[in-house]
């Protein structure tokens, strides 16, 4: 009887593990597919020669940030909307501040304990940098938004850490 219970529990765990893996694999595949679609659309719409990276950004609306080069070998960034209700935006990378400059601005303005992430995004048709950091007291996780073109502060919000 004891062996039967152990076999039954093992079978249930295997089934649960298989279902979990299937769900995870399916969701990762969907995200990769959406990123590939955004990269393909950016290449087509903006006549890009190559794509070097694609990352999702979920602000007011879902966008995919596609970095690559145009036919003149200039580095460009395309913000591709998930929804057709939004408009795609293309900028030369040189027309905005770099990731390193965004980090430097936040470090100088806020003196954070730790920078958690830095990503390109877009809000209200305005490309931006989203810098996420932990404050020096380790009490808040802060999202700090800088204008992509000028590096000027746009907004920030903080979440209390437990």
Automatic annotation (TrEMBL):
InterPro entries registered for this protein in UniProt: Cystatin_sf (IPR046350), PepSY (IPR025711), TseB-like_dom (IPR041401)
Start and end residues of each Cell wall elongation regulator TseB-like domain: 37-81
Signal peptide start and end residues: none
Domain PepSY: 97-156
One Pfam family here: TseB
Gene3D superfamilies (alphabetical): 3.10.450.40
Name by which UniProt lists this protein: DUF5590 domain-containing protein
């Amino acid at each position: 009887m004891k062996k039967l219970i152990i076999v039954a529990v093992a079978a249930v765990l295997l089934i649960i593990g298989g279902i979990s893996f299937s769900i995870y694999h399916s969701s990762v595949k969907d995200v990769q597919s959406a990123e590939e679609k955004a990269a393909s659309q950016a290449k087509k719409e903006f006549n890009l020669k190559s794509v070097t990276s694609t990352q999702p950004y979920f602000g007011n609306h879902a966008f995919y940030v596609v970095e690559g080069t145009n036919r003149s070998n200039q580095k460009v960034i395309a913000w591709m909307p998930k929804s057709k209700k939004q408009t795609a935006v293309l900028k030369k990378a040189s027309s905005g501040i770099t990731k390193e400059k965004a980090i430097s601005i936040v470090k100088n303005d806020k003196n954070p304990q730790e920078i958690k992430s830095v990503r390109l995004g877009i809000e209200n048709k305005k490309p931006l940098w989203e810098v996420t950091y932990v404050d020096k007291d380790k009490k808040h996780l802060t999202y700090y938004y800088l204008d992509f073109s000028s590096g000027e502060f746009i907004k920030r919000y903080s979440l209390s850490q437990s």
